[in-house]
Amino acid sequence: MHLTIANHLVPILPLIAIGVFIGYIAGMFGVGGGFLLTPVLNIVFGIPIQIAVGSALCQKIGTSIASFLKYRHYQRGEPRFDWIMMAGSIMGVDAGTRLLKYVMSAGHVGIGKHPPIGLVIIEVVYAVMLSATAFFTIREALAAMKRAVPRGDVTIPGPLAKIRIPPYIDLPNVQLTRVSVPVMAYMGFVLGILSGLLGIGGGVAFMPVLLYSYGLSVRNAAGTGILLLFVTVVTGTIMQAHEGFVSLPLAMTILIGSSVGSQLGALTTHHVRNRVLRLLFGGLVIATIGMILWDLASSLM
């Protein structure tokens, strides 16, 4: 059985299998999985990048709901983070969607296989963002392995947690006090832009912010980002659909698998040590970077 997506025949069973894996990643690390799903849909299945971006956002609606319920059951994270960042994130999604529409209408590169300029820009942004994420994730994981006593879910305040721009808010669920509200709102805006442009829920960028800039543990960071992820992907899906970038049959097929996978991923996170989670996440990001760079190099040669 196949789906017809933008004149491409796409097999259904592999899409469901990809959905299970993406859902597992989303549940385990508190990210939407879009950082992996969007390149896979475009590179492996040949789906146009703008359709891959919009459909990847759409399928994460179900994944984020399932992950949110599971993390609330385990009482992980701090939902006040999400509420404060939400307004900035919604505005950022709108800006990112407009930017995607603009770059995809910018013509083609004059070398190699003449790929669209927009596709090259998106893949370069992806590679840079994921490289920074992988670097900080693996560096922290290696540092954690040298500690005699595991830190557990204790928060070690990072640089953004120490910025003193009023007004402030206390976040007792993650042991933070006097956290700047404006800084959190601006971070939401930046994450929203990435979501609208790249088809990610923002989790792959939000997780490093929570882990290294605010100092949360992996489990608390994963539980914190789920609510913001849900609101971001709903907003992004509506805006992407308005531009004609969402294939509902594609998104629903992937969702069949991802809703199941997200439950298994959240359960795994509850039983795996933080340092192991960091290494697994870093390794997955590096593999994604390799896939993107390979596709970029082959299109420009």
Number of strands: 4
State the distance separating the first and last CA atoms.
34 Å
Strand percentage lies at 5-15%
Q: Note the overall shape.
A: globular
Please list the strands of the largest sheet in the order they lie side by side. Answer: 1-2
The poorly predicted ranges are none
Overall tally of structural domains: 1
Describe the structure in your own words.
This protein is mostly helical and 301 residues long. It has one domain (2-299). Helices cover 71% and strands 6% of the residues. The protein contains 10 helices and 4 strands. It has a two-stranded antiparallel ribbon. It has a two-stranded antiparallel sheet with strand order 3-4. Strand 1 and strand 2 (8-11) form a beta hairpin. Helix 3 (49-74) packs antiparallel against helix 8 and helix 5 runs antiparallel to helix 10 (274-299). The chain is globular and about 50 Å long. It starts with a strand and ends with a helix.
Q: Which labels suit this protein?
A:
301 residues; two-stranded antiparallel sheet; 10 helices; mainly alpha
Chain-wise SSE layout:
Elements lengths: L1 E4 L2 E4 H18 L4 H11 L4 H26 L4 H25 L13 H29 L22 E4 L4 E5 H18 L4 H11 L4 H25 L5 H24 L2 H26 L2
Antiparallel strand pairs: 1-2, 3-4
Helix pairs in contact: 1-9, 2-3, 2-10, 3-8, 3-9, 4-6, 4-8, 5-7, 5-10, 7-8
Q: Can I get a quick summary?
A:
The protein is mainly alpha-helical and about 300 residues long.
